[in-house]
Amino acid sequence: MEIKEINLDEVRHIHLMGIGGAGMSGLALLLKELGFDVSGCDMSYGFYVEKVAQADIDFNIGHSSDHLSQFSPDLLVYSSAIPEDNEELVVARESGIAVAQRAQVLSAIFDVRYGIGVAGTHGKTTTSSMIGLILSGAGLEPTVAIGGELCDIGCNARLGSGPHMVAELDESDGSFLCFHPTISVITNVDWDHVNHYPDFDSVLNTFESFSQNLRKGGLSVLCGEDGGVQSLLKMMEKDSPKVTYGWGDRWDWGATDIEYNHGGGVSFSVRKHGRSIGRIELSVSGDHNVLNALASCIVADMLSVPFDVIKRTLRQFKGAKRRLQFKGGVEHIDVYDDYGHHPREVEATLKAISQIFPERKILVAFQPHRFTRTAAMAENFAEVLTYADKVVVLPIYPADEPPVDGVTSHMIGDHLSKKNHPSFFVTDRKKDAIDKVMSLVEEGDVILTLGAGDIADLGDILVKEIGRKNIVPRSIAVGV
C-alpha cells in the first residue's frame, strides 16, 4: 500500500467503510473519543457494529454513495476488505473527499504519542492486551487499540490520558509500515495472508522494513525462539537497539521452570540477563502465552513498571475474547472457542488444551478461513489437526474472497485421510457441523471451536445443545 501521512488537524467528520470490523470499530471509537464526528457503514450488523451503536455513532447497513451526501464527511476511511472499485469509495474520490486506509489514520494518532507497536503473525492481540492492562494497572492511562476485544476492559479501543499508546499492528497488507513505534514488539514472523505475500521471503522483507521504522532512541523486542525472527535478526543491523526473549538463558530475557496447572493456567520464572527476578502466574494457558507474557514484562520493565505490578496484573489477565475462551461446561463436557486460523495457531491452541486437560479427548470443529489460505496450507492444517481426537471441518469462510475453483474444505479432509486420522468429518453446511459434533461428543470431552469466521457463535450454540440432550457416558459409549 502507499505510505501517505494523514493530517487530522482540519478534519471534522470522518466516515468509516467497514465499521463493523474488529479494527475499524476500534478506530471509530477512538476517533469519537478524540472529538471527531464519526459515521460508518458495513454490509451486516454484527458484534462490533453493536459496540459502535452503543457509542452513539451513526451507521448504515450496506454501502452506498448516498452516505456521502447524508454525512458530508471531510475524510473517508476504508478497510482492506473494501474493493477499490466500490461505488461509495469511487464517488468519494471523484468528489474530492480525502480518502485513507485505517492504518494511515491510526498511525496519525499513534505517531504523536509514545507508541508501543505489537507486530507479528501470531500472538499480537494477546501481547498488546497484556501490555495495555499492565500499563493501566501501573496508572499510566495508556491509549489502546487492539484488533480483538479485550475481556478485561470490555472493548477493543480506549483513549487514555497518558502519553503512551499500545497498538496491535496489522501486517496482513503491509499497512504496519505506516507506524513509527518507540518500542516495537515482534512476536514471530511466519508466512500468512498469501493473497498479499507470495512467499515467506516477502513477509520477512516487510518485517525488516518495519524494524527500520523505529524512532530514534527506541527499542525492538523480539522473540528469539521464533525461526522467522531469527532470520530477521540476521538481517537487522548488528548495533540496532533490541532485546530478545525466549526459553531459558539463551536470550536477554528468559522463562524457566514452567509449570502447567490442571484445569488451566501456567506459571514460570522470569530471568533477566541470566538473573531471576521473580515468578509469574497466568490464568491463561499455553507456551505461547508464556512468551506473550514475557514480551509484556520487557515492555513494562522498559517503562519502569514495578515487577509486583506486572505480576499482579498478569495474574488477573483473563485473555482477549476468542483466544481459548471458555464458553461453558455441561455434563462434564467443556466448550472452548479460539480465533486460530493459521496452522501454527491451531497447533498452539491444541497443545495448550492438552496441557490443561492431558487425560481428556479433544473434539475440534474447525472452520477454514479464506480460499487462498486453505489452498496454500491444507496439508499443514491436516498435520496439526491430528493433535485432536475427533475433527469436524466446516465449509470455508470466504471473508472478502470470491470462491476459487476446486478449493474446498475437502482438501483438508483429503490430507487427514492420507494421515489416517481415526475420526474426521467434512461438512458442506454449518448446520450439519452442529449435528455432527453433537453425534460425536461424549461425556468428558473438550470441544474446541476454531476459526476466524462466523464459527464464533458455534460454541454458545453447542453449550445450549449439550444442555438439552442426554450425553452418553463414555463408559457406556465404549461398551465397558
TrEMBL record:
<keyword id="KW-0547">Nucleotide-binding</keyword>
<comment type="similarity">
    <text>Belongs to the MurCDEF family.</text>
</comment>
<dbReference type="InterPro" id="IPR036615">
    <property type="entry name" value="Mur_ligase_C_dom_sf"/>
</dbReference>
<dbReference type="InterPro" id="IPR004101">
    <property type="entry name" value="Mur_ligase_C"/>
</dbReference>
<keyword id="KW-0961">Cell wall biogenesis/degradation</keyword>
<feature type="binding site">
    <location>
        <begin position="120"/>
        <end position="126"/>
    </location>
    <ligand>
        <name>ATP</name>
    </ligand>
</feature>
<comment type="function">
    <text>Cell wall formation.</text>
</comment>
<keyword id="KW-0132">Cell division</keyword>
<keyword id="KW-0436">Ligase</keyword>
<comment type="pathway">
    <text>Cell wall biogenesis; peptidoglycan biosynthesis.</text>
</comment>
<feature type="domain" description="Mur ligase N-terminal catalytic">
    <location>
        <begin position="13"/>
        <end position="112"/>
    </location>
</feature>
<dbReference type="Pfam" id="PF08245">
    <property type="entry name" value="Mur_ligase_M"/>
</dbReference>
<feature type="domain" description="Mur ligase C-terminal">
    <location>
        <begin position="322"/>
        <end position="453"/>
    </location>
</feature>
<dbReference type="InterPro" id="IPR050061">
    <property type="entry name" value="MurCDEF_pg_biosynth"/>
</dbReference>
<dbReference type="InterPro" id="IPR013221">
    <property type="entry name" value="Mur_ligase_cen"/>
</dbReference>
<keyword id="KW-0131">Cell cycle</keyword>
<dbReference type="InterPro" id="IPR000713">
    <property type="entry name" value="Mur_ligase_N"/>
</dbReference>
<protein>
    <recommendedName>
        <fullName>UDP-N-acetylmuramate--L-alanine ligase</fullName>
        <ecNumber>6.3.2.8</ecNumber>
    </recommendedName>
</protein>
<keyword id="KW-0963">Cytoplasm</keyword>
<dbReference type="InterPro" id="IPR036565">
    <property type="entry name" value="Mur-like_cat_sf"/>
</dbReference>
<dbReference type="Pfam" id="PF01225">
    <property type="entry name" value="Mur_ligase"/>
</dbReference>
<dbReference type="InterPro" id="IPR005758">
    <property type="entry name" value="UDP-N-AcMur_Ala_ligase_MurC"/>
</dbReference>
<dbReference type="GO" id="GO:0008763">
    <property type="term" value="F:UDP-N-acetylmuramate-L-alanine ligase activity"/>
</dbReference>
<dbReference type="Pfam" id="PF02875">
    <property type="entry name" value="Mur_ligase_C"/>
</dbReference>
<keyword id="KW-0133">Cell shape</keyword>
<keyword id="KW-0067">ATP-binding</keyword>
<feature type="domain" description="Mur ligase central">
    <location>
        <begin position="118"/>
        <end position="300"/>
    </location>
</feature>
<keyword id="KW-0573">Peptidoglycan synthesis</keyword>
